[in-house]
Amino acid sequence: MATTESKQIIRALYDDDDVILKAVKDTRAKGYHVNEVYSPFPIHGLDHAMGLKPTRIAIAAFLYGLTGLIVAIVMTWGMMNADWPQNIGGKPSMTWIQNMPAFVPIMFELTVFFAAHAMVWTYFAVNKLYPGADAQNPDPRTTDDKFLMEVPVKGDRDELIEFLKSSGAIEINEVTENA
Amino acid sequence: MHYEAPIREPLIIGDKSYHDITVDVARPIETAPPRSWWIVFSISLAMFLYGVGCILYTIGTGIGVWGLNKTVGWAWDITNFVWWVGIGHAGTLISAVLLLFKQKWRMSINRSAEAMTIFSVIQAALFPGIHMGRIWLAYFVFPIPNQLGSLWPNFNSPLLWDVFAISTYFSVSTVFWYVGLIPDFAAIRDRAVRPVTKHVYKILSFGWGGKAKHWQRFEEVSLVLAGLATPLVLSVHTIVSMDFATSVIPGWHTTIFPPYFVAGAIFSGFAMVQTLLIIMRKLFKLEDYITIQHIEMMNIIIMVTGSIVGVAYITELFIAWYSGVEYEQYAFLNRATGPYKWAYWSMMFCNVFSPQFMWSKKLRTSIMFTFFISIVVNIGMWFERFVIIVTSLHRDYLPSSWSMFSPTFVDVGIFLGTIGFFFVLFLLYARTFPVIAQAELKTILKSSGENYKKLHEQHGDH
Question: Measured between CA atoms, how close is B292 to chain A, in angstroms?
Answer without folding.
Answer: 25
